[in-house]
Amino acid sequence: MIKFSPPYFGAAYYPEAWEQKELDKDIKRMKDLGVNMVRVAEFAWAFMEPEEGKYSFEWLHRAVKALGEAGIAVVMCTPTATPPAWLTKKYPQSLAAMPTGQKFVHGARHHYCPNSLVYREFSNKINTRLAREFCKYPQIVAWQLDNEFSCHINSCYCEVCERTFRQFLKRIYGTIDRLNESWGTGLWSIRFGSFDEIPLPKPAPANHHPSLIYYFKYFMSHSYSNYAREQTRILRRFTAVPITTNGMPPFHELDYEDLFSNLDFASNDLYYSPEEMWKWCPELDWMRPLKEKPYWIMETSATSAGGLIPAAPYYHTPGALRAKCWLAFAEGGEAVSFWLWRAHWSGQEMEHGSLVYAWGEPTLAEPQIRQVSGELAKTKDFLNSTKPEKPRVAVHFSYPSMWIFNQGHLAWNFNYVSSWQELYYRPLLEAGIPRDVIYPNADVAGYSAVISPFMAVIPRKTARKMEDFMKNGGIWIVGPMSSFRNEQATAFQESAYGPLEKLIGAHVRHRFQASGKGKVDLTGHKSVGCSLWCDAFIPEKGTKAIAAYADGPAKGMAAAVERKIGRGKIVALGTHFDRRFLAGWLVSEIAKYAQAKAVSGCGIVAVRRVSVTGKPEGMIVVDIAGKGGKATPDKNGVDLLTGKKVKNSLSLPPYGVAVIKY
């Protein structure tokens, strides 16, 4: 009997697009290239149910059987991203609506409303039939829900969503008076007399109320997550195989903490160019701690991306494709799947990169695909018996904060995601400090240091966790541009930061947008520039100013403060320091308090691998910058890829990889 086990190395495949003879040829090519997993069926609803209530699965059974007999594992997808034409024509109430109220039309994908009961009924039927048909295949090693929830539209403005949104708010607030009071709707005469008067944020002469927009984002995210939970419940009636769905960065406005809460493992689609390979790292770093299980890369490009977007102007230079695959496995993944196996010969994505051209010959990716598949076979036992050592440092990422910043009411042209990545995550990466990316509800007990930049909303529950964290010896670096909104998306009335001011032991006396020319004086350092935003503190007794504004309207006032709490401390940043200085200061603080030891230089990712019990077993080192570099393993070992001994220093060529076993 064939055993299917990770590491998986595969691609998306569309048997519905090819004749049986081509399927047979493709399976032979897969075996030749070392592909041991394929993902199928995410866009095949019209083939599964060509007419309402009439199902056809023979073609898919043939494909799944043939793949399994060849030793190729299968990820089965629910087909709900592409409802068939008969459904959208006969049941137009299933279609999503634009902000103007106009319905989307058939012919693309994701044109459904996640709250449409009609759509959900047909979705449940096809998923039930699909699960019943394919629940007993041992080659099906995972199920994927839909495809990239909210990839093309993240909000629906139909009548169903309007009604459901009002019900959603009523469950939260209970009475319209409580909602009015919480949102402060007295201004602009927005005050609502009943929940039925609450609109969706459709086009208006000026901005809608910030709380309305915030809660609508929350509602739509919850709607997709609720839909995912419904699909999961159906599948679990028939199968115990792990279930996931695929995220899609740049971070959408879906709350992934909620979306993946009921799923078995996290997966993601990553399409960054080789020059942006570092952007893979924050994506891997949120998946790993979210479920505390190996994650999957469900899609990435083998050559280039294109089709629905203009063709991406890059190809993988020698070694780059191999490096990004190994980066995914090093950081805790157990699968890398490309989009797609064989290029489409028709449709919207004909120009997307692939492993095989539409006419059947391998693409430019062939040499590196062969190399990686061979290396995975060599290192399989090591990968399956080890995992990344848990980092001592975490960085908060907050979807509610992103929803606040995306309304654009604070710093001019500020982008939450790119600023978070570039200014506070990247310095840790480039210093070689291992880190997790965590969401607000995450358990922080296992960390020594937590950084919370641009955390516009700090839930009370999170604040309590962080207080306990500091009492037990942790350092919390919070800010800048944090805690200026409450959980209703309104400002605090008692103070700028609300309850956080009591925790930091300082009062925010002034707030203003930075000019970009101001400077701050830091204790023990020379003056450095500040930007984005300025909060000026008046420290209380027991709180120390560690930086002061050197000029401007807040000259002499504290720009950053710190206070001991239990065995730990809090550091509050009122402004964004000069980027180069901040990177050095941040790394210094983290290294001091978290005892986080860097083992690699800029552009090199070195991941310590440990056994299930935490025993050091080795290290995987990858050059993601294409410049080569050095790393310092903790022990002597053997590079499983070359068989060569590795001592206290390791040199890598551009895009080099080493898998060191101690």
UniProtKB/TrEMBL annotation:
Q: What is its EC number?
A: 3.2.1.23
The entry's Zn(2+)-binding residues are 113, 156, 158, 161
Q: Which domain of life is it from?
A: Bacteria
Q: Which family does it belong to?
A: Belongs to the glycosyl hydrolase 42 family.
Name the species this protein comes from. Answer: Candidatus Desantisbacteria bacterium CG_4_10_14_0_8_um_filter_48_22
Against InterPro entries, the record matches this protein to: Beta_galactosidase_Trimer, Class_I_gatase-like, GH, Glyco_hydro_42, Glyco_hydro_42_N, Glyco_hydro_b
Report the GO molecular function annotations: beta-galactosidase activity; metal ion binding
Top EC class per UniProt?
hydrolase
Quote the catalytic residue positions: 148 (proton donor), 299 (nucleophile)
Q: Where is the Beta-galactosidase trimerisation domain?
A: 392-593
Full protein name: Beta-galactosidase
Which reaction equation describes what this protein catalyses?
Answer: Hydrolysis of terminal non-reducing beta-D-galactose residues in beta-D-galactosides
Question: Gene3D superfamilies attached here?
Answer: 3.40.50.880, Glycosidases (3.20.20.80), Golgi alpha-mannosidase II (2.60.40.1180)
Leader peptide range in chain numbering: none
Q: Name one GO cellular component term.
A: beta-galactosidase complex
Task: Indicate which residues the UniProt annotation says bind substrate.
Answer: 109, 147
Keywords on this record?
Glycosidase, Hydrolase, Metal-binding, Zinc
Q: Give the record's GO biological process terms.
A: carbohydrate metabolic process
Q: Report domain Glycoside hydrolase family 42 N-terminal positions.
A: 13-377
